[in-house]
């Protein structure tokens, strides 16, 4: 399960890097863009390899097909989509088609890690109750703010309403919180 979460995080980061490469495309030389896209393709292929290894480890478990059939099917679909994303990135293409393939892989990974709300912790024959939950989280919840140094940012004229003291959030949560509050501000200003 931890490996799937790490793959999910890496895929989200790859999608963000793909977006940055696409944004920078007009400002850089073609050779540099092609090199970036090839590196993204290699990263995607390594992630697919990690998914395949998770599948192999699950298949080694006793009664794997019966107990983890859904997860095996989802991870198999993830591997297939990641293979397509690898091919798209290697063309080189970092536009909508590549982003869509990466997003589909993220959506499938999110489905494979859902938690059964009726299953609790504890022991027994099926610790945790398995993973047949119905969360409606999507990959859009994992949208990051990007890291394109050539991006043109416009001030929104929004002042901070909270203090600056206290503990800061870990870096991996900041982009999601920033996106949440930016969307909240946009919805509020439309009304």
Feature tags:
globular; 191 residues
The total count of helices amounts to 5
Beta strands, count: 0
Mean pLDDT: 76
**Range of strand content:** under 5%
Helix/strand structural class: mainly alpha
Measure the end-to-end span.
Answer: 42 Å
Radius of gyration, whole Å: 20 Å
For the sheet with most strands, the description reads: none
Task: Name the helicity range.
Answer: 55-70%
Instruction: Tell me the series of helices and strands, N- to C-terminal.
Output: HHHHH
Shape: globular
User: Poorly predicted ranges (pLDDT <50, ≥5 residues)?
Assistant: 115-146
How would you sum up this structure, described in words?
The structure is a single chain. The chain is built from five helices and no strands. The chain is mostly helical. α1 packs antiparallel against α4, α2 runs antiparallel to α3 and α3 packs antiparallel against α4. 61% of the residues lie in helices and 0% in strands. The protein has a domain of 115 residues.
């Amino acid at each position: 399960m931890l490996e799937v979460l790490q793959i999910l995080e890496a895929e989200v980061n790859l999608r963000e890097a793909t977006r940055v490469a696409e944004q920078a495309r007009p400002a850089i030389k073609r050779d540099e863009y092609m090199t970036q896209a090839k590196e993204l393709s290699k990263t995607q292929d390594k992630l697919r390899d990690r998914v395949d290894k998770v599948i192999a480890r699950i298949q080694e478990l006793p009664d794997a097909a019966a107990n983890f059939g859904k997860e095996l099917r989802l991870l198999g679909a993830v591997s297939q989509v990641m293979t397509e994303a690898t091919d798209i990135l290697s063309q080189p293409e970092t536009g909508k088609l590549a982003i869509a393939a990466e997003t589909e892989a993220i959506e499938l990974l999110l489905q494979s890690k859902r938690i059964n709300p009726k299953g609790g912790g504890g022991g027994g024959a099926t610790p945790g109750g398995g993973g047949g939950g119905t969360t409606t989280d999507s990959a859009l919840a994992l949208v990051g703010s990007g890291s394109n140094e050539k991006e043109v940012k416009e001030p929104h004229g929004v002042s901070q309403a909270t203090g600056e003291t206290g503990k800061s959030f870990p870096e991996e949560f900041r982009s999601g919180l920033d996106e949440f509050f930016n969307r909240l501000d946009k919805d509020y200003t439309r009304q």
